[in-house]
Amino acid sequence: MFDLRWSKGLIVALLLLFAGQAAVAQKNNPYYDDKPIHFGFLVGLNYSTLQMRLNAPAVYRNDTLQYIDPNWGPGFQLGVISDLRMNEHMTLRFTPTLMFSQRNLQYSFENPLYDIRKAIQVANVDLPVNIKWRSDRVNNYRVYLISGFKYSIDMASQQRVVEDVERVKLMRHDFAYEVGIGVDLYLPFFKLSPELKFSQGVRNLMVPEAHKYAASILGLQSRSIIISFNFE
Question: What is this structure's pTM?
Fold first, then answer.
């Protein structure tokens, strides 16, 4: 015999299911991307190293130096976001960022007692200009690619410091290109965009000096992997 109570329960369950599906399909901030300009901020982590070119004759003259190993060092960054809409799938972004990082050079000598790690602290003011290519929006997300160039000023640079300490010094000014990928997540009150980006310097940052830690290196270029969370 047909149970009316069971029928009512089934109808309620179906209504709840359809309501849940409608809530999932509902777009948050449906007109968000129609605005010509967006502002926001970013926070994140980075891992940085130095791409190295050795000065072979100097290495050969220094019989006790076995090799130099550039190691990755941690850091973090804070920045502000300005995003200009160019069309439905492209925006122009300017994201001034304060980036703190550490870049390490591990020196190994014939006598292990002389092994040493030279840590180079960097406090960059980064001025990146990027183009962001976005996919079509699907419900509350869209995937994007980003690329561009940045100019950096190292506020902690020891380039002009004259001292007796055998320190590896980096130039104050740098230029780099950047490429990355991310996802725009449209939330009810703002947009969150996790982003992974690779940065490669194009300028030789090495400050030439005569001591054994610097004379063996012909060139150093910056290299970073940047993980950031953009809030707009």
Answer: 0.80
